[in-house]
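Prompt: I keep going back and forth on a fold encoding question. Comparing notes only helps if you start from a blank page. Show me how you would write down a chain together with its backbone fold. Please set it down just below, with no commentary around it:
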Amino acid sequence: MSIGILTSGGDAPGMNAAVRAAFRSLKMRAPECELMLFRDGFRGLARRLDSASDRNVDRKDVRDIIHRGGTFIGTGRVPELVLPPPDAPDVVARIAARESFLRVAAVNLFQHQIESLIVIGGDGSFCGAQAIASAYRQTFPGRPFRVIGIPGTIDNDLHGTEYSIGYDTALNNVVDSIRKLRDTIESHRRAIILEVMGNTSGWLALQSAIAGGAAAVAIPEVEETWDQDDMVGRLIAGVRRDYRYFIIVVAEGVLKRAGADWSHALKRRIEQATPIHEMLGHEMEVRINSVGHVARGGSPSALDNTLAGLLGSAAADIAQTGSLGRGQPIEGDIMVGCRGTRVITTPLDEVIAHSPRLVTRDSELYQLSLKLMLSAGQPF
């Protein structure tokens, strides 16, 4: 039996630990089983393996990777895997390129006798994996093959798991940035608008705002959080109560939905707010900062490495034995996830259908933010 593994989409701290856990669990149970590395995401499926070591991973290949961020086997996004819209001007050429890519990937998997492909990534990666699995089964009917997904995304927006690998590290990186910025803006009595990653879902922005003591947060799912009149009103109330600084966390998805100039427009409105000027005797200075890709850099947190170990080991067990040792066989394409410290599995098509998992007004964290963040009517 041969098992393949790849990382896809945006890198997430802890991906290396998941690869390591899969290798160690697999070799502990079945030393003769071969684990193959496909480098640079799905691109690796469409070309020859780079070296003999990629075809037969040894313990030295994964010995010192648990503390490293990123992914040592590389990652990336493959435009060819995206199904083009019917009205795209080059739709015929793009569909042909997609079918060619899927066919080459399926043949390579067959030639390497891969029976299980472990994919670490987000919902886009799982969509690509599902398409490749479908192409494989159509090309080689009757041959055993399955996809096992491991959630690896700093957005933490996948259905079927409470947490994704990389989220905790990114959250701590953003909160660390907030704490460092607080030192300087408090000294100068300023406000700061901090833009963080989160194109579709606002979990990272929301939780970092709560943990970092922000005055306000704007997330793409809840349009009322974009209300600049409300934000300026909160800051006026804060200045009246002698607050020395204000932190406003904004998910990047807000800038795409409300306009790329949203942060700069808010900056101008705060600086031009007459009540603030009258109370301070001068306008409040506002700075705009972005955490950006720094959020997913650096060594993984202890929680991310633990989660990666848990899910990487579970994926290897399912690939090798077809179960998690609880007696119940696990069939088909699935994703391993966590509920607390317990591993759960969800059919991959269900994960894709219900992802991204978005913040709603009823979410406990969103309701918590309403209680903890600055409001115009609070009595303190």
Summary: The radius of gyration is 23 Å. Residues 167-188 form the longest helix (22 residues). The CA atoms of residues 197 and 252 lie 5 Å apart. The first strand starts at residue 2 and ends at 7.
